[in-house]
Write a structure and sequence with these properties.
The chain is of the alpha/beta class. Among the domains are: 2-82, no CATH class; 87-240, YbaK protein, CATH 3.90.960.10. Helix content is 41%, strand content 14%. The protein is built from 14 helices and twelve strands. The strands form three sheets. Strands 1, 2, 3, 4, 5, 6, 7 and 8 form an eight-stranded mixed β-sheet that branches. Belongs to the PRORSD1 family. Residues 1-30 form the signal peptide. Residues 91-220 form the YbaK/aminoacyl-tRNA synthetase-associated domain. It comes from Aphanomyces astaci (Crayfish plague agent).
């Protein structure tokens, strides 16, 4: 099927529509095989299956090809409507910045590094930086000068990419804002992109790269109601944060002999023990209240580690026992695996997975002590 998948990339929208508009999907698949799988090794293997199985196997590729071509045509139409020149280069699929650099690194301008991050309170962010910049997720909130003190940016799931930006992992670019019709995403652009002659990015397909000027990119994203936040990723957090005037030292406040009434003290103690947040008002904090005040989990000195208390541990034991039985039924055996992975191996993964930030997996502190 590898050769069949490869062939799909070459089919034009018109031809696909003609094939798919045949009497049945079976006819479509049969016609497609004769036209495009001739002479390939995969043809014999493919035709060895029943007609129903052939339809089943080929349908996702036909569907994916149609969607990809439709998305590319959507970008072309948007460029045309806004009077933006279309400079497009076809190449082999490039899932990472490194692969894109190998394919189109010769083009004048800069490539983009694109991250989709999410915070429970602040929402979704599309971060677009020049490929050579280092984007530190931990310090990003400070660079963006977000109001909230407790910002925990995490990489968005595939569902967010699919449902909000309508793009697959490896094909993200600032142009994806045209699909965010409900303005759920905040766009963050690297200042370095705006000083480049050209910005080279995927048109939501990773087998193509378009070149666009900074002025035209701003025209594009603003047309789709996304005013970008400009961040200079080349400066430190201290430089990026606007300086505040030092407050004049205050005179020490006079001590007051405050008498706390017993009933007030009892009320304050009860409020700390009981639920503070409502589920409707603030779901994340409500959930934290539930699992901590019901004595399900406890926090630990080591950063990123939690203690499962008896109630939650019993739930885990039941899940473990159920899954263990199911795994052993299909022949899965026990094996060793590392509880801690070295920073070298974690760093290696960022070259394999787009958007993977090794620092989020590091255990760095025990209490106030660095490990």
């Amino acid at each position: 099927m590898a050769c069949v998948c490869h062939t799909m990339n070459t089919i034009s929208l018109t031809l696909l529509e003609a094939v798919i508009s045949s009497l049945t999907l079976k006819n479509a698949v049969a016609g497609w095989i004769k036209l495009y799988a001739n002479g390939n090794e995969g043809k014999a293997k493919f035709e060895a299956n029943s007609e129903e199985r052939q339809c089943e196997a080929a349908a996702p590729f036909l569907n994916f090809a149609l969607k990809s071509i439709a998305m590319a045509e959507k970008i072309v139409a948007a460029f045309h409507a806004l009077g933006i020149p279309l400079e497009n280069v076809d190449h082999v699929p490039a899932f990472t910045v490194e692969e894109q650099a190998a394919a189109v690194g010769h083009l004048p301008g800069v490539l983009t590094k694109n991250l989709v991050l999410k915070d429970k309170k602040e929402g979704i962010f599309l971060i677009c930086a020049a490929a050579h910049q280092t984007v530190e997720v931990k310090s990003l909130a400070k660079k963006m000068q977000l109001v909230s003190n407790k910002v925990n940016l995490r990489f968005a799931t595939e569902d967010v990419l699919h449902n909000v930006l309508q793009v697959k992992q490896g094909s993200v670019s600032p142009l994806a804002v045209l699909n965010d019709t409900e303005n759920q995403v905040r766009l963050v652009l690297d200042a370095a992109l705006l000083t480049a002659d050209k910005i080279n990015c995927h048109p939501l397909q990773n087998d193509k790269t378009v070149s666009i000027t900074p002025a035209d990119l701003l025209k594009f994203v603003r047309h789709y109601a996304h005013e970008p936040l400009i961040v200079d990723f080349s400066v430190s957090v201290a430089q990026a944060t606007s300086p505040r005037a030092a407050a004049a030292p205050k005179a020490p406040a006079k001590e007051k002999n405050t008498i706390v009434k017993p009933d007030k003290l009892e009320k304050d103690t009860k409020s700390k023990e009981g639920m503070v947040w409502s589920k409707k008002e603030n779901f994340p904090d409500w959930y934290t209240d539930v699992i901590t005040k019901s004595q399900m989990i406890d926090y630990y000195d080591v950063s990123g580690c939690y203690v499962l208390r008896p109630w939650s541990y019993e739930i885990w034991e039941r899940i473990q026992a159920y899954l263990d039985g199911k795994f052993k039924e299909i022949g899965v055996k026990n094996c060793y695996f590392p509880m801690f992975v070295t920073s070298e191996k974690l760093n290696r993964e960022k070259d394999h997975l787009e958007g993977f930030a090794p620092e989020v997996a590091w255990v760095t502190k025990s209490g106030d002590t660095d490990l």
